[in-house]
Amino acid sequence: MTLARQVARVTRTAFLVVAVAALINMAMLAYLNLHLDAEEVRATDAGRELRLAHLAMLDQETGLRAFLITGDAESLAPYLEGRNVVVQHLAAARDLLTDNDELLGLIDVQDERRRAWTSQWANRAVQVGGSISSSGVSPYKREFVTEGRLLFDDYRAAHDDVEVAANVLREDTEAERGRVVKGALALQVVLLCAGLLIVGRQLRSLRGAILEPVQGLLGTISELRDGNLSARSRPQGPAELRAVGDGLDELAEALGTERAGTERRAQQLREARREAEDANAAKSAFLATMSHEIRTPMNAVVGMTGLLLDSPLTDEQREFAETVRQSGDALLTIINDVLDFSKIESGQLELEHQAFVLRDCVESSLDLVAAQATAKGLDLVAQIDLEVPPVVEGDVTRLRQVLVNLLGNAVKFTEQGEILVSVTAESAGPDGRPVLSFAVRDSGIGIPADRMDRLFRSFSQVDSSTTRTHGGTGLGLAISLRLAEAMGGRLDVSSEVGTGSTFTLVAPFTPGHELEDRVRIAPAQLPGKRALIVDDNPTNRRILRAQLEAWGMSVDDDGLPLEALDRVRGADAAYDVAILDMHMPDMDGAELAVTLRALPGWEQIPLVLLTSLGDRITLAEVPDLVHLTKPVKAAALRAVVARALGSTEPEHRATERPERVGRLRILLAEDNAVNQKVAVLMLERLGQRPVVVSDGAEAVEALRNAAYDLVLMDVQMPVMDGLEATRRIRADLPADRQPRIVAMTANALVEDREASLAAGMDDHLAKPVRAEELADVLARVTTRASAAPPAAPALTPAPGGPAVDPAALDALTRHLGANGPGFRDTLVSAWRRESRHLLEQLDSGAASGDREAVGGVAHSLRSSSASLGALALAALCASVDDAVRADEPLDLMVTASLIHLEVARADEAFTDLG
Ligand code: ADP
């Protein structure tokens, strides 16, 4: 049965019960009104008529009695009236009680007795009444009266019966009314109870018919919700709920099918992803192989051209060799870009977190583009705000990469004017770290607004014709942007065609505390001194002024040499130093220097000439003229000005041939004959004589037979590769025979570097190997006493003499030409890092009374310091080292503080040397 029919049935039943109850009520009311009420009225009316008839009889009797007593005919009036009245009332009573035979019978009896009284006594009394009344008491009279009374008593008895019967009739009617009402009520109660019972049963069955199927449906829904799509409802109950169940089942069926489809698609996606990852891995492997394959011959090309350029060549040959070198460099840049980009794209980019001096990073970036900028006559200037933390933590290599890329573009797309790098501190980021902004502003061709969107797209150039003019892969900015984002920052650009562009890297950096930027410390000679700056470039003037003022100097500056001369002649101002730019209109810096020297009072004033790379100036013409190469590094400016104002540090001594530096025992493991040759030649230039082997197995064997300080290990070699050889060496050799092992590989990916380090290597050199990087590696080697080579600069100078002999550094870097200063900085930085580390060991050794540890530190410091010309320190360390070996008494704390002092002196001297 349907739900609708069941509900209708219950409603109908309830309605029926109510209707029957109403009908009963109506029937009862009708019966009471139409039948019982009429009956009752008739009984009451008949009773009244009977009473009136009886009263008339009483009146008759009273009238007759009066007549009998008085004999007065007038007394007969009630009797005479009563006779008719009685008859009328009795007739009326009879009419009302026509269907009540019993009462009619009784009335007949009463009437009969009335007539008997009337005929037998009343009529006689009327006739004899007059005579009786006048007679006295007589027996007749008494008898007559008694006779009348007896007849009347009969009548009265009959009347009483009638009245009783009339009362009974009335009471019967009332009793019936009560019975009818009670009966109707009882019927209704029964009906209601029966109705309630039926409706209750029907409701129960209705609830049973709905609840159970609904519970079933809810159960199915909850199973479906829990993910069991095979759950089905068991259709039952009314048709409507069965339809709902069927719908639910269909829905579950559809969902099941959908889920199966989704799972199939997910499986397909997983497979596709695995395939993509495999493809990506294959791509990475391919890139690594390509990188290796390209870098191996490039190593020969770049290395050999470097060596070729160091040999005597005709101008034409030099030009050819330089072209080869530049093309090699360009090709390497492209390979590096592509590798970098693919590394970033595949999410393999990992940033380092190390403290570095921000100024060094910015200035070394400028160095890398200085040559191109000078060739185009562009001014290259860096400005670092004083609020910028001098030392920060981060990935210095990646920061430099972004800056070099922005600077390279700026130089590439600028024909005249200047390029300014300004570093400013913005408000701190959400994590509280200072946010630094590195803006590279050029005065170049600019970028049209509608081409801006192409800028950061990979392999895209704003104007494809620039590729033909300037070259480039269109990857530089895409890589820079991703690096900026990896640092948690961004790369902004603003540009105006014809006016120039500004690219700004904005990123948060944690301030570092392990290092210090010595440039921020004013040398004792500078505060209070007066300086004159003459430079036509206002930005340069502003920056130089800010720098000198930061060291406590007072500064005058002029944009034109003639104005400067006027100023100098006009006021007999006593300047302590003058800084002159070489390239100025009307009169160049060298001429200005000559003119100034000729002025009275200017014979002794130190002059600093700012020159560009490649400027040829005959310094001999102007006495006491120091030159400083642009872009001016703050550290160099500080050293030069300090020396000019009284520092007693010796001048750089130029020597013709590179001198031999401390010789190390080096083992070169390299299978490629050309690369062997390149490395051997480079090492020989650095004063070394390596032993060469061709594979890992030979390297292991060679190390078993002899002690080496350094192993330069190619990674991919036949028989035994470099990683395996390293693992064997690390496992086989005792600790005191362990060499420093540096991977020399054409695999430039991060994983390759990690694999080398994991195998036990100390460092990693990517091919093509450059002379300066190789020299840096040598500088980091710590030799052992037994192997102490005949160090070229003997440990002669006694403590108290000059802290550093600049000849040693010159000897190491001179042959590198323009790259020399950069390389020298690299060497000194490496020395500083190592010394800091060794001093920590020294302090803990001295504090714990560990003579061996102190001796070990002295031994390590001795050779690295000697190589760089820190001879006083080397001599001190040698004596400590010897004393420890000879078991001589030694106050470790005093020794440690002496070494600290000497390291500080050498450090200062390196800074002053610039
Ligand atoms: P590329 O290696 O080709 O220079 P980049 O990604 O570094 O690739 O630069 C993309 C393009 O953006 C350049 O080809 C050039 O059109 C434009 N561009 C970049 N820097 C500058 C700039 N400083 N001035 C003008 N145009 C620039």
UniProtKB/TrEMBL annotation:
It holds the Pfam family HATPase_c. At low DSF concentrations, interacts with RpfF. Its main location: membrane. PANTHER family: HYBRID SIGNAL TRANSDUCTION HISTIDINE KINASE J (PTHR45339:SF1). Its EC number is 2.7.13.3. Residues 208-260 form the HAMP domain. This is Circadian input-output histidine kinase CikA. The chain crosses the membrane at residues 12-32. The modification 4-aspartylphosphate is found at residues 581, 714. Residues 820-914 form the HPt domain. Residues 289-511 form the Histidine kinase domain. It is a multi-pass membrane protein. SMART domains: HAMP, HATPase_c, HisKA, REC. In the N-terminal section; belongs to the phytochrome family. It is found in: Cell membrane. The modification Phosphohistidine is found at residue 859.
